[in-house]
Amino acid sequence: MSMLPAGKVLAFAARGERCCLGVRRAGRWIVCPYGAVLDGAGAKDQCARCAQLDRSRSVAADTMADDPRPYGVYLAYFGPGLLKVGITAVERGPARLVEQGAVAYAWLGRGPLMAARRAEALLGSALAVPDRFAKAAKRAARGALPPVADRFAELAQLHGTAQELPGWPETLEPVEFAGADHSELFGLDRIPGEVAELGSMTSGAEIVAEVLTGVGSDVYLRLAGGGDGGGEAVAVMDARLLSGWVLGAAVGRVTTVPLRGGVTGAGERKGEGKGKGEGGQQGLF
Q1: What angle do CA 242, 79, 137 make, to 5 degrees?
Q2: How many CA atoms lie within 13 A of 259 on its CB side?
């Protein structure tokens, strides 16, 4: 991830075509051998063939069952009623939770990869806990977040119920409940009440804006020109849509990427947004 601090001014344009990033191997990207051109509207930064090759050795695709690293099972909170279960390598700490834009989270257990997978499946089958949410649902939930104590209470209830389930994997060590919150890390109090959605990049499209904050891959921007030159506006952009473009300096002084219908904005009640999270950083994306 890159750091985009609050207050940073962006002024860039998309050049040429959006190209497949290729395949990541041994910590580096290998150029796409097909020279594939991508659709500017999609978040995926790989062509179908590179994505297939990537998933041939992937924990997410269950094609890496021999991974010897210990894994953590987590519960992630995105808003009232939006709790999911997931797994991540212990060595990554909470990085996966930050990438997903989890407002709060708690560790559920730690152990071998396949034991973590079984626990994830158990919560899905026994408690109907999903392993993913659509981006639209996450964005909307940020506009109606309860106080931190209520978030932790919802997490704690599910945490206790999950650990009491019959069939808990024997090799997965339960972790005592300890809620963590990302309110300060994400700068949720910097998101205004009215937020639009920035449309897709096209060749020649420009973004001229000030960074307000970032939540996962979402970056909240105060746009110069308001998108289509209509005055100042605040919009959220999925930074993944920039992957594969060559970015150059903007020529104009306004954002020319169109805006879509509004999404919900600020997600904190006044004076109640700060928890015991990892605060101090701004604008991750």
Answers
A1: 45
A2: 26
What is the per-residue pLDDT for 225?
A: 62
240: its two tokens? 């993944």
Q: What is the DSSP letter of 131?
A: S
DSSP 137: H
Residue type, 168: W
In percent, the amount of the chain with pLDDT more than 70 equals: 85
Q: What distances in angstroms separate CA 39 from CA 18, 45, 201, 257, one per listed residue? A: 7, 9, 10, 15
The phi and psi torsions of 111 (rounded to 5 degrees) equal 170, -165
Distances (CA, A) of 45 to 19, 207, 239, 248: 8, 20, 11, 19
Q: What is the DSSP pairing of strand 104-111 with strand 180-181?
A: antiparallel
Q: What is the pLDDT of residue 42?
A: 85
Structure confidence by residue, pLDDT tens digits, 92-128: 999 999 999 999 999 999 999 999 999 999 999 999 9
Three-class secondary structure of residue 234 per DSSP: strand
Both structure tokens of 142: 């940020």
* 120 CB-near residues (< 8 Å, 6+ apart): 73, 85, 86, 87, 131
Half-sphere exposure of 59 (CA within 13 A, CB side): 17
pLDDT in tens, 4-35: 788 999 999 999 999 999 998 777 889 999 99
Q: Give the position of tokens 């030159």.
A: 229
CA distance 86 to 96: 9
